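In the current project phase, our protein records have gained a structure token line. A sample record follows, to show the layout:
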Amino acid sequence: MMDEYAYVNGKKLRKGFTTGTCATAATVAALSMILNQEREEKVTVHTASGVEVTMDVHNPSFGPEEATAAIEKDGGDDADATHGLLIYSTVTLLPDQTEIEIDGGQGVGRVTEKGLACDVGMAAINPTPRRMIEQHVRKIIGPNCGARVIISVPGGEETAKLTYNSRLGIIGGISILGTTGIVNPMSEESWKAAITIELTMLYNQGHRSVVLVPGNYGEDFATNTVGIPAGRIVNMSNFVGHVLKEVQRIGFTKVLMIGHMGKFVKVAAGIFSTHSKDSDARMETLVANLALMGAPMELLKKVDKCLTTEAAGTAIKEFSYEGVYQVLADKIKARSERLLRYRKPEVNIEVVVFGTEEGYLASTQPLEQIKEEWT
């Protein structure tokens, strides 16, 4: 049995289960009901990492050769958009064949773009959950019988709007995911994995350049002001260093980074994890660079007392030191390229920074040139 808790930053947090584990458990419960011709209240399966788990069965129904069961998705203390959904499996025995067919029904998305783990047209049931479902089914029915397994998730289509699926070309529902079968609370790994999938998909579609933004503000500015198509933009969140290394590992050679000064000023100081829980040197970085430009002590003290880069921007404008933004944009480019300099391929990085009030602030190439090249 697994340890039910993980300790993150001194907090005791409960682990959960992936949609893949839930789909596997629902399949085993349905199959057991066909073979035993009785309702199942609990089911025990092994996750992809080999952990044995027992789960409650919901809404069981069965007949001589077909049965349906559901398992409630429990994300533990890392509850995501799919937490609380019922993951259904309908299993039909196929005694005249030996193949095990696995497909998605209502609420499970369909792949519409190349570059994902599943081929275009397939249900978005990732390879590990498919393998676990097939292994459990084969172990139960033996080598001389086949089965059809349909995974469905009522409410999945609506829930998918809260996920990355539409960006990845997965339409009509959620994905059935999981590499270990266990959800570790407050883990950033699944988020990073989704970004890698998006980058890989773009690369497999033939792109060798990519636009990276740190959030929705960056995406809005990239599309509405710069005019870049949404399909070329990847949201890297706060994982600037991680995503840049993934971009290089996958094989991209050109990057355009577009972001709000409040995030990107940290990168100018060589900080590549920009979440406030990890770092905050915004005012210190502004003060240091303004001082190098010869800014008066009055401005430096004003900026030092500011809580946001927007407030600092007001003081910077008052003293006519807006040139600091170009200095910072150039440093963001230099720092980012330096992070990747000892690896191949060589990656050329351009940068655009903006503010909420002022809009465009600076870029490493003229903005019109960037628009011409990237739109």
